[in-house]
Design brief:
Blueprint (H helix, E strand, L loop, with lengths): L13 E3 L7 E2 L15 H14 L3 E4 L2 E2 L8 H17 L5 E4 L2 E3 L4 H6 L10 E5 L9 H10 L3 E5 L12 H8 L3 E5 H4 L5 H12 L5 E3 L5 H8 L2 E3 H8 L10
Parallel strand pairs: 2-3, 3-5, 4-6, 6-7, 7-8, 8-9, 9-10
Antiparallel strand pairs: 1-11
Helix pairs in contact: 1-8
Length: 249
């Protein structure tokens, strides 16, 4: 049997999950116009207000950095953050906002590592993602290089990589290498389909998750989070995790 095990038992009742327990969101796309997230400052302010209403005190917003699509740099991200912080302050929204990035592991990524031009959050945490289509070919090399350079890699939404659903061995290998995992809240409520939801549950069941994030891009995501409910047994398992979100407050 896979180390993931199996989920047994009767169907759980859905219960509310209080997102204020997290305190800090580490994955979102709130800086407008620089990736596939918020298109305008008006939308960004709506999302920021929504995070506060959900109980968040702080947000680390993480624009995509992808060589073929979103060629963001620390400068473009920080400039966008400065403007967004000003707008949030003017709107009197009580949300502390900082910026890092969500780095796509592509052909230019190792050059960024070598040049030490990566945006991190907290204690040198670095948010990275893989292709959704095919597994990475140089995964061990990438994480070895990151860690020898002093970074603490955080893999974004490992539950969404479909190619690992039937063969989770690489995920366990990453945990053995001290790679941290961030699960999307929307995955757990089925927004990306039942198989992704189940994969997220299994990662939680195996205590392989250190972070929960919204991965919020737009108002539709916010609306889903406003009525956030999970299976009762899953809420209990999340409460047993040693999540790191609140360490950033």
């Amino acid at each position: 049997m896979s180390r993931f095990g199996r989920l047994f038992g009767k169907k759980d009742h859905l219960v509310p999950f209080d997102l204020s327990k997290l305190g800090c969101d580490i994955h979102s796309h709130l800086i407008p116009g620089i990736d596939d997230g918020s298109p305008s400052f008006k939308d960004s302010l709506e999302l920021a207000r929504g995070l506060v209403d959900l109980g968040y005190l702080k947000a680390i917003t993480t624009p995509h950095v992808m060589s073929d699509f979103y060629r963001n740099s620390p400068e473009t991200i920080q400039n966008g953050l400065i403007q967004l912080k000003q707008k949030i302050q003017q709107a009197e929204i009580p949300l502390n906002i900082e910026a890092a990035a969500e780095y796509y592991i592509d052909f230019e990524f190792m050059e960024k590592v070598e040049s030490n031009s990566l945006l991190t959050f907290g204690n040198n945490y670095l948010l990275v993602e893989f292709s959704f289509i095919e597994p990475p070919v140089n995964m061990n090399e990438v994480f070895f290089k990151l860690q020898t350079n002093g970074y603490r890699p955080v893999l974004a939404h490992p539950e969404r990589y479909l190619y690992w659903h039937n063969n989770p061995k690489p995920l366990f290998e990453l945990k053995d290498r001290d790679v941290l995992f961030q699960i999307n809240l929307l995955s757990l409520m089925g927004n990306y389909g039942p198989q992704v939801a189940k994969a997220g549950e299994l990662l939680i069941e195996n205590k392989m998750v250190e972070w929960l994030g919204t991965d919020m891009h737009h108002a539709n995501h916010l609306e889903l989070l406003k009525n956030y409910q999970l299976k009762q047994s899953l809420v209990s398992k999340i409460e047993d995790l040693l999540l790191l979100n609140r360490t950033l407050l």
